[in-house]
Amino acid sequence: MHPYPHLYQVHASAVAEGVVTLGSAGLADIPCTPPPEFGGPEGYWSPETLLAGAIADCYVLSFRAVARASKVDWTSIAVEVHGTLDKVEGVTRFTKYVTHAKLVVPAGTDRARAETALQKSEKVCLVSNSLNGERHLETEIVEG
After folding, report:
1. Among the four 21, 26, 36, 138, which has the fewest Cβ within 10 Å?
2. Residue range 78-95: mean pLDDT, rounded
3. Where are the extended beta strands (E) located within 68-115?
Protein backbone atom coordinates (compact mmCIF):
# COMPACT_ATOMS: atom_id res chain seq x y z
CA MET A 1 0.00 0.00 0.00
CA HIS A 2 1.13 3.54 -0.72
CA PRO A 3 1.64 5.99 2.15
CA TYR A 4 -1.11 8.52 2.93
CA PRO A 5 -2.42 10.85 1.72
CA HIS A 6 -3.74 9.20 -1.44
CA LEU A 7 -4.88 11.56 -4.22
CA TYR A 8 -7.57 10.74 -6.78
CA GLN A 9 -8.27 12.84 -9.86
CA VAL A 10 -11.39 12.74 -11.98
CA HIS A 11 -12.25 15.13 -14.79
CA ALA A 12 -15.64 16.01 -16.24
CA SER A 13 -16.41 17.57 -19.59
CA ALA A 14 -19.64 18.58 -21.29
CA VAL A 15 -21.29 20.91 -23.74
CA ALA A 16 -24.41 23.01 -23.04
CA GLU A 17 -26.82 20.04 -23.34
CA GLY A 18 -26.55 16.27 -23.03
CA VAL A 19 -24.10 13.89 -21.47
CA VAL A 20 -21.35 14.80 -19.02
CA THR A 21 -18.30 12.61 -19.53
CA LEU A 22 -16.36 11.57 -16.45
CA GLY A 23 -12.85 10.25 -16.81
CA SER A 24 -9.65 9.51 -14.99
CA ALA A 25 -6.22 8.54 -16.25
CA GLY A 26 -6.14 4.92 -17.36
CA LEU A 27 -9.89 4.34 -16.90
CA ALA A 28 -12.80 4.07 -19.31
CA ASP A 29 -14.97 7.18 -19.53
CA ILE A 30 -18.40 7.14 -17.85
CA PRO A 31 -21.27 9.03 -19.51
CA CYS A 32 -23.53 10.71 -16.92
CA THR A 33 -26.69 12.80 -16.95
CA PRO A 34 -29.03 14.14 -14.31
CA PRO A 35 -31.24 11.34 -12.95
CA PRO A 36 -34.84 11.05 -14.17
CA GLU A 37 -35.97 12.63 -10.87
CA PHE A 38 -34.29 15.85 -12.07
CA GLY A 39 -35.52 15.57 -15.66
CA GLY A 40 -32.64 13.51 -17.04
CA PRO A 41 -33.06 10.54 -19.39
CA GLU A 42 -33.24 6.91 -18.28
CA GLY A 43 -30.27 4.65 -18.84
CA TYR A 44 -27.37 6.77 -17.57
CA TRP A 45 -25.35 6.99 -14.41
CA SER A 46 -25.89 10.20 -12.46
CA PRO A 47 -23.98 11.80 -9.57
CA GLU A 48 -26.62 10.32 -7.26
CA THR A 49 -26.30 6.75 -8.57
CA LEU A 50 -22.51 7.05 -8.66
CA LEU A 51 -22.52 7.99 -4.97
CA ALA A 52 -24.70 5.01 -4.03
CA GLY A 53 -22.52 2.83 -6.28
CA ALA A 54 -19.37 4.05 -4.52
CA ILE A 55 -20.86 3.02 -1.17
CA ALA A 56 -21.80 -0.43 -2.49
CA ASP A 57 -18.42 -0.99 -4.15
CA CYS A 58 -16.48 0.18 -1.10
CA TYR A 59 -18.55 -2.07 1.17
CA VAL A 60 -17.82 -5.15 -0.98
CA LEU A 61 -14.09 -4.37 -1.17
CA SER A 62 -14.01 -3.73 2.58
CA PHE A 63 -15.80 -7.03 3.20
CA ARG A 64 -13.28 -8.93 1.09
CA ALA A 65 -10.44 -7.57 3.22
CA VAL A 66 -12.23 -8.09 6.54
CA ALA A 67 -13.35 -11.63 5.64
CA ARG A 68 -9.83 -12.56 4.57
CA ALA A 69 -8.32 -11.20 7.79
CA SER A 70 -11.08 -12.83 9.89
CA LYS A 71 -10.80 -16.14 8.02
CA VAL A 72 -14.51 -16.14 7.13
CA ASP A 73 -15.36 -18.54 4.30
CA TRP A 74 -17.91 -17.17 1.86
CA THR A 75 -19.17 -17.86 -1.65
CA SER A 76 -20.68 -14.58 -2.81
CA ILE A 77 -22.01 -11.26 -1.62
CA ALA A 78 -24.70 -9.02 -3.13
CA VAL A 79 -25.02 -5.45 -1.89
CA GLU A 80 -27.80 -2.96 -2.54
CA VAL A 81 -27.62 0.65 -1.37
CA HIS A 82 -30.65 2.92 -1.04
CA GLY A 83 -29.78 6.59 -0.70
CA THR A 84 -32.44 9.07 0.39
CA LEU A 85 -32.12 12.54 -1.13
CA ASP A 86 -34.17 15.15 0.69
CA LYS A 87 -34.37 18.85 1.38
CA VAL A 88 -33.19 19.83 4.86
CA GLU A 89 -33.27 23.46 5.95
CA GLY A 90 -33.46 24.54 2.31
CA VAL A 91 -30.48 22.41 1.24
CA THR A 92 -30.83 19.32 -0.96
CA ARG A 93 -28.62 16.54 0.38
CA PHE A 94 -28.49 12.83 1.07
CA THR A 95 -29.92 12.25 4.53
CA LYS A 96 -29.82 8.46 4.81
CA TYR A 97 -28.07 5.45 3.34
CA VAL A 98 -29.33 1.91 3.84
CA THR A 99 -26.94 -0.83 2.79
CA HIS A 100 -28.38 -4.33 2.44
CA ALA A 101 -25.74 -7.05 2.23
CA LYS A 102 -26.70 -10.63 1.39
CA LEU A 103 -23.86 -13.03 2.06
CA VAL A 104 -23.82 -16.61 0.80
CA VAL A 105 -21.65 -18.93 2.88
CA PRO A 106 -20.80 -22.64 2.67
CA ALA A 107 -22.79 -24.99 4.89
CA GLY A 108 -21.36 -25.12 8.39
CA THR A 109 -19.90 -21.60 8.35
CA ASP A 110 -19.85 -19.83 11.71
CA ARG A 111 -22.72 -17.38 11.11
CA ALA A 112 -21.83 -15.18 14.10
CA ARG A 113 -18.32 -14.75 12.76
CA ALA A 114 -19.72 -13.93 9.30
CA GLU A 115 -22.12 -11.38 10.82
CA THR A 116 -19.24 -9.77 12.72
CA ALA A 117 -17.30 -9.46 9.45
CA LEU A 118 -20.32 -7.86 7.75
CA GLN A 119 -20.72 -5.34 10.57
CA LYS A 120 -17.01 -4.51 10.68
CA SER A 121 -16.97 -3.95 6.92
CA GLU A 122 -19.55 -1.19 7.26
CA LYS A 123 -17.46 0.49 9.95
CA VAL A 124 -14.23 0.46 7.91
CA CYS A 125 -15.67 1.50 4.52
CA LEU A 126 -13.87 4.78 3.80
CA VAL A 127 -16.58 6.05 1.46
CA SER A 128 -19.35 5.61 4.04
CA ASN A 129 -17.10 7.10 6.70
CA SER A 130 -16.77 10.22 4.54
CA LEU A 131 -20.52 10.91 4.37
CA ASN A 132 -22.81 12.89 6.67
CA GLY A 133 -26.12 11.09 6.17
CA GLU A 134 -27.58 8.59 8.63
CA ARG A 135 -26.36 5.07 7.85
CA HIS A 136 -28.03 1.69 8.35
CA LEU A 137 -26.71 -1.77 7.56
CA GLU A 138 -29.05 -4.71 6.98
CA THR A 139 -27.45 -8.11 6.65
CA GLU A 140 -28.61 -11.52 5.50
CA ILE A 141 -26.55 -14.70 5.60
CA VAL A 142 -27.64 -17.77 3.65
CA GLU A 143 -25.99 -21.11 3.09
CA GLY A 144 -25.51 -22.04 -0.50
Report:
1. 26
2. 96
3. 76-88, 91-105
